[in-house]
Amino acid sequence: MTKQISLLGCGWLGLPLANDLLKNGFSVKGSTTSAHKLELLQEKGIQPFIIALYENTIEGDITGFLKDSEVLVIDIPPGLRKDTSISFVDKIKTLVTQIESSRIKKVLFVSSTAVYRDEEISPNPVEITEETPTNPETESGKQLVEVENLLLSNPNFNAIILRFGGLIGEDRHPIKYLAGKENVENPDGPINFIHQEDCIGIILEILKQLFDINRSNHKMPKQVQHDNIIFNAVAPQHPTREEYYHKKAKNMNLPLPIFVKNSMSKGKTVLGDKVEIILGYKYKKKLF
Questions:
Q1: Per-residue pLDDT band at 124 (split at 50, 70, 90)
Q2: Helix, strand or coil, per DSSP, at residue 269
Q3: Model pTM?
Q4: How confident is the model at residue 189 (pLDDT cuts 50, 70, 90)?
Q5: pLDDT per residue as tens digits for the range 67-84
Q6: What is the DSSP string of 42-63?
Q7: Cys-Cys crosslink for 30: which of 46, 56, 142, 171, Cβ 3.0 to 4.6 Å?
Q8: DSSP character for 222?
Q9: Residues near 232 by beta carbon (within 8 Å), at least 6 away in sequence
Q10: What is the pLDDT of residue 175?
Q11: Residue 266 β-bridge partners
Q12: CA 248 – CA 258 distance, rounded (Å)
């Protein structure tokens, strides 16, 4: 396999991922929907493309973007919070027709733990593994499940599905929006977060092992290299929402959010240890 990656989506996660791929000897074709970012991508050594997916068409040189790559990383959000009438599924179906005409052999899709439903905590939250049936509550989660199945069932390529927990980073944390708020619900719901650094580390480890680069003694099984696989990717600490956000607020000198105590909390504990077992990856960023 050539060490060229096509990375669809050079945003909050995709751009620093592209930087790390370049540092590790990969060549990267990166996409953006913003013309003003083309120069930035090029300055960083990324071959830039304007690519925008629509339900029935694709804007940009998708053929050139996929050309000569055998691995495609899809890291674009469904975008359904602003407009629930959008069909993310149809966008990916349109993309798949292009993938089928290319040399792509492996598709890594960034999904979400939103594909699992929150349940009432009585007395403890249910533990979720990759074997747990998906049962999403939100429109975004429902469409993510459809997209996962679409990719996993395609005979023209293999798919790796990464179900990330809530994304946090040095410049991105929900406590900034919750600080000082009153009547915050779900105090006993467990946290399922993952830091940007670990998201990048997990994707990088998968790609290194796919390309047999600097493989450790803990090698990815051959069937993973040639078959479909799903990973939950969530930090191993699962404090309650109240415990976590209070501690974060104190650490950041922010006013505490005030939680409601008069209703049953809901949630789930998503286990991300398959990443450690199969890939040999160790989570680097603890939640506290």
A1: confident
A2: strand
A3: 0.94
A4: very high
A5: 999 999 999 999 866 777
A6: HHTT-EEEE-EE-SS-EES-HH
A7: 46
A8: H
A9: 113, 128, 129, 130, 163, 165, 270, 271, 272, 274, 275
A10: 93
A11: 120
A12: 13
